[in-house]
Amino acid sequence: MTAPGGTSDPGRAPGTGRGAPPGLHALMDRYLDGDARAFAALHAALAPRLTAFLVHLVRDTAAADDLVQATWLKAHLARARFQVQGASPDGAVQAWYFTIARNLAVDWLRAQVRERRRREPGDPDGGERDRLAEIPSDLPTAEELEIGEAEAQEITSRVRDALAQLPAGQREIVELHKFQGLSMAEIAARLRIREGAVRVRAHRAYKALARWLTPSLRALLVLLARGGA
Amino acid sequence: MTGIDAKSLIAGDLADRRRERLQHFRPAWLVAVTVPIVGLLASGTRDDFWAQPTWILALQALVWGLALFVLPALGLGLWFPGRAARVVLGLLAAAVAFLVAAGPALFDMSYPTGLEDHPIYQLGCASLTLAAGALVLAVCAMSGAFAQRRRSAGALWLAAAIALIGIDTTTWHCVITGLDHTLPSHLGAGVLMLLVAGLVGAALHRRQREP
């Protein structure tokens, strides 16, 4: 297994600038300008390290693969906030991706703990707590990189923009259904229309939203909806 | 595993952004192309246009190609050549601008018109170079072209394109090829345009990209 950050210990934090492949910052710079080839090269340079890092943290290959995909998508949506911090620009790029990966791993492990407690109230945490304690702490925090808040804001604003484009009748149904958790029957009762009409409007609204949200954002929403990623 | 491939989704997203950028700037590009055409229709093309040597005509065509296609593609983030190619393009743009303005005189293909150091013609050609450049600069400024690249140095590619448009418009209009005339009023005005457009572009880049 390739050690993230070029170290022999896959659990060691790779984002402090040491061992970052050279040229990462030049690739990131061109990717941020929209260069798809630079992104492909950046992906090739970092993907094996990210995969090894996440497999080590969550000890679940399938979950780690989902988390790697979510890492790329989250970083992509928040890419406008990327800034070089510290002495090594290449290290800053690596730290950016590995901090996002670490946060996703922490969220996933916490979700596993919650899920296990819900299913088996008497059972301790099945090792996830130990793994949470093993998460490296020498990476910058999400707050330091201004990405935790930024990525959430980015997703929220994109979804909000898409919602704002819906006709009022459809938007109301989506808000009642998704944000207030009402069933179709409850929405029909509240709006005093037939349930069939609610379903038709909701179907049209979700179809339009799927069209307006970019594929990368839709995929990230799918990943976030699964497994606490 | 969800089977989601982030790499191809992001590549698709970047391709979509590039398409959107292309669509957004197409009208501005058409207006920018119209500027030298209208300028030449209004002021008239040089009488000896077709009598110029073929290599000079080819150089002038190369300048149009650089100014209207290659440099805007770089400045707008539609094309990303490597560092070596960018250096070659920068040097090529400078060399052809110089050769288009001074080539005929340097290669002894210039003929005296007696107007080389006449201030009215010098002022007229410098004004045409600056006016054509200023109109294209206004188009770039209003369309947000200077804010497309992450670094303000990207604005220099557009500034170079603007300067080349000014120089080539004047070259297609002016029959005087002596160095006394072309160096200050064609090339000199072009360099001035490059500086002005570069400064305006960098300032707009900072202003338009600030959150």
From TrEMBL, chain A:
<feature type="domain" description="RNA polymerase sigma factor 70 region 4 type 2">
    <location>
        <begin position="158"/>
        <end position="209"/>
    </location>
</feature>
<dbReference type="InterPro" id="IPR013324">
    <property type="entry name" value="RNA_pol_sigma_r3/r4-like"/>
</dbReference>
<feature type="region of interest" description="Disordered">
    <location>
        <begin position="1"/>
        <end position="21"/>
    </location>
</feature>
<dbReference type="InterPro" id="IPR013325">
    <property type="entry name" value="RNA_pol_sigma_r2"/>
</dbReference>
<dbReference type="InterPro" id="IPR013249">
    <property type="entry name" value="RNA_pol_sigma70_r4_t2"/>
</dbReference>
<dbReference type="Pfam" id="PF08281">
    <property type="entry name" value="Sigma70_r4_2"/>
</dbReference>
<comment type="similarity">
    <text>Belongs to the sigma-70 factor family. ECF subfamily.</text>
</comment>
<dbReference type="InterPro" id="IPR007627">
    <property type="entry name" value="RNA_pol_sigma70_r2"/>
</dbReference>
<keyword id="KW-0805">Transcription regulation</keyword>
<dbReference type="Pfam" id="PF04542">
    <property type="entry name" value="Sigma70_r2"/>
</dbReference>
<keyword id="KW-0238">DNA-binding</keyword>
<keyword id="KW-0731">Sigma factor</keyword>
<dbReference type="InterPro" id="IPR036388">
    <property type="entry name" value="WH-like_DNA-bd_sf"/>
</dbReference>
<dbReference type="InterPro" id="IPR039425">
    <property type="entry name" value="RNA_pol_sigma-70-like"/>
</dbReference>
<dbReference type="InterPro" id="IPR014284">
    <property type="entry name" value="RNA_pol_sigma-70_dom"/>
</dbReference>
<keyword id="KW-0804">Transcription</keyword>
<feature type="domain" description="RNA polymerase sigma-70 region 2">
    <location>
        <begin position="44"/>
        <end position="114"/>
    </location>
</feature>
<protein>
    <submittedName>
        <fullName>Sigma-70 family RNA polymerase sigma factor</fullName>
    </submittedName>
</protein>
UniProtKB/TrEMBL annotation, chain B:
<feature type="transmembrane region" description="Helical">
    <location>
        <begin position="57"/>
        <end position="80"/>
    </location>
</feature>
<feature type="transmembrane region" description="Helical">
    <location>
        <begin position="154"/>
        <end position="179"/>
    </location>
</feature>
<feature type="transmembrane region" description="Helical">
    <location>
        <begin position="119"/>
        <end position="142"/>
    </location>
</feature>
<keyword id="KW-0812">Transmembrane</keyword>
<feature type="transmembrane region" description="Helical">
    <location>
        <begin position="87"/>
        <end position="107"/>
    </location>
</feature>
<feature type="transmembrane region" description="Helical">
    <location>
        <begin position="185"/>
        <end position="204"/>
    </location>
</feature>
<feature type="transmembrane region" description="Helical">
    <location>
        <begin position="27"/>
        <end position="45"/>
    </location>
</feature>
<protein>
    <recommendedName>
        <fullName>DUF1109 domain-containing protein</fullName>
    </recommendedName>
</protein>
<keyword id="KW-1133">Transmembrane helix</keyword>
<keyword id="KW-0472">Membrane</keyword>
